[in-house]
Amino acid sequence: MNFMPQSQTSVDPVKLEKLAEVAVKVGLQLQTGQDLVITAPVVALPLVRLITKHAYMAGAGLVTAFYSDEESTLARYRYGSDQSFDRASDWLYDGMAKTYAKGTARLAVSGDNPMLLSEQDPAKVGRANRANSAAYKPALEKISNFDINWNIVSYPNPSWAALVFPDDPDAIAVAKLAKAIFAASRVDVEDPIAAWAEHNANLAKRSHWLNGERFASLHFTGPGTDLTVGLADGHEWHGGSSTAKNGITCNPNIPTEEVFTTPHALKVEGHVSSTKPLSHQGTLIDDIRVRFEGGRIVEAKASRGEEVLNKVLDTDEGARRLGEVALVPHSSPISVSGILFYNTLFDENASCHIALGQCYSKCFVNGASLTQEQIKAQGGNSSLIHIDWMIGSGQVDIDGIRPDGSRVPVMRQGEWA
Amino acid sequence: MNFMPQSQTSVDPVKLEKLAEVAVKVGLQLQTGQDLVITAPVVALPLVRLITKHAYMAGAGLVTAFYSDEESTLARYRYGSDQSFDRASDWLYDGMAKTYAKGTARLAVSGDNPMLLSEQDPAKVGRANRANSAAYKPALEKISNFDINWNIVSYPNPSWAALVFPDDPDAIAVAKLAKAIFAASRVDVEDPIAAWAEHNANLAKRSHWLNGERFASLHFTGPGTDLTVGLADGHEWHGGSSTAKNGITCNPNIPTEEVFTTPHALKVEGHVSSTKPLSHQGTLIDDIRVRFEGGRIVEAKASRGEEVLNKVLDTDEGARRLGEVALVPHSSPISVSGILFYNTLFDENASCHIALGQCYSKCFVNGASLTQEQIKAQGGNSSLIHIDWMIGSGQVDIDGIRPDGSRVPVMRQGEWA
């Protein structure tokens, strides 16, 4: 083969293969005979090849990969006519939903340039995102409902690396980002599988404590933040590995440092400020400040990307309400690295965060057996979107509020109390 | 962008962009607002990007590209378990069939290594091909029935170039193959669009003459060949540009030098020998010798790839019968180049050829309005496969036989008589 991205030389091939192995064995727990759908940026081809290899070694049925390409994405904005921006590949997403319904696992490789669309017309970006979200809904539901085992891992895309390490030459930036990804993904140790087992046990201990407390709400205070997040009736905390409705225990996110649950869509009050920039489908949104009334965002500002943020909030009614709240200590390895990744998969694991939009049905007691109506009645939100953004820092305190109004310190200055 | 296959440096970027423009404007005649699905080897990314650009410049709705990867294809054979070889992405092909039914155009970039699977177990290759053919059927029917405008162009994949020019270093082989592709695709002239208009007019003149003659059959004689190919009732010759059922006039194959029609599935008698190797899904099949009785292949031999050939013939009943007969003069530019491409899209345009399997409904008078039953009654073949192979050379003569038994010379020593 003569085809190799230049960045390949900067990426340790042994660790890259360990990442592929962890994605298949820990991330997916891919089963004998199970089909796999992979989505990835085309620059991540070296990782996709290794994942494909380890998937077949694990007894995969058929592995099918779909590649996105930044240049081709930009071509629509540079040369496309206006009508193009309301189109989406609904037939492809419908097909994905069908194959997920038949038990196919899903692995996404992350690594797109977080700033790809930052120079493009926000109105067109908003229309394209909305069309894509609507088309993607049936497939996303299989994932957000946790019907199947799924996983996301990351690849050090040169355009992403250039944003994270702007002062370094390309090859150095890629090498640094690769090292950070390998460390955060726990594949830079001798036995990554054992390291993940230990990490999963620690996260399970935190979830267990929170599930025992059964708080009615969490109260966040810090600079620019005074927010009370009501928790859904019958909410359940999760973290680390988790069992999908198909019975397979997987680690959806690699890396992961969070424990998380479902807020009550109607019971969020106060104001909150973001503590890290959010990269949403190629647009950077920074310094978000929003105000909630009755669970709904009634005011939203940002120092950068405010127009795209407001278009996101207008996606549907549920886009203005919360679908997730997650706790991450300020001392998490990703936070300690000091690197701002401009990638939610990493930045959300350096900081407590909340997510706009769709809730996870697994974050309810007996979530797998609840209907959509029951989830809604218990306070679960529904939306075409699910967008995490970071609100934690070393200056944020969190209290758990019990149903009787008494308070329990949960975090102080960003650390478990 | 830091991502560029090494071969890119060997390929003239100006001619590559002309190829992309010809694919969109001549090959597809892509319409304003029409969606486009592209399939391509991942090494062809530079061409796919240019096609995407020109598609959007032509007013495309949404352009969606799917990439295959030779290393990932091989991973199934190297590491996959036995059950994997009966799987196919039916959900993806079903989706493609649906979007084609809604008017989406289809462009395939050819260029896969013709020998990719030659070292693999023929039984597994046969099973994988059969599963894929069955799954692909609904999408292929939209193409073979000419419901939509579609096109194939080629990219000089390094692994293909190495096979065509085995004595040259990689970069030279790619440069030579690129040059041959550009010449055969008529993009090495100042005005490729005008060159294609003239070429299409010449091919139309040949078809017109053959349609006036209304031969009952063609009689091929040459070394190892004495074959009478009955033509279907109400057959119609086509060549060059052609109008799809959606009303769009396109050039499905680039390059193309052939005029072709539908044989009668029950009226082929005698024996025939291939004059060039056939590359079928990664296996090279050489020196094919088959004998027909009543339209059916009753004996098939090959000096190489015989096992795969016989598995192909066992795909279904129609796989043993002909779906196409095509006439190409021995002096065609591709033949004169003297290059053996190991790629049917090129080699079939250097030589008269026949195709096993599915017929084209457009190759009937009023083909667009015929039902499947009518097509069958008139002698049209149906099958999951459509595989062209070469039977023409400078030593082959062809007579046209009229319904009254009289003979008209059609070709002598490989040239129009």
- Quaternary state, please? homodimer
Helix and strand content put the structural class of chain A at: alpha+beta
Instruction: State mean pLDDT of chain A (0 to 100 scale).
Output: 94
Overall domain count of chain A? 2
In the sheet with the most strands of chain A, the strands line up as 15-14-11-6-5-19-20-21
Total helical segments of chain A = 12
Determine the fraction of residues in helical runs of chain A and give it as a percent range: 25-40%
Distance between the termini of chain A: 54 Å
How would a textbook summarize the main sheet of chain A? 8 strands, antiparallel
Q: Kindly provide the radius of gyration of chain A, computed on alpha-carbon positions and rounded to a whole number of angstroms.
A: 20 Å
**Overall geometry of chain A:** globular
Give the total of beta strands of chain A.
21
Proportion of beta-strand residues of chain A: 15-25%
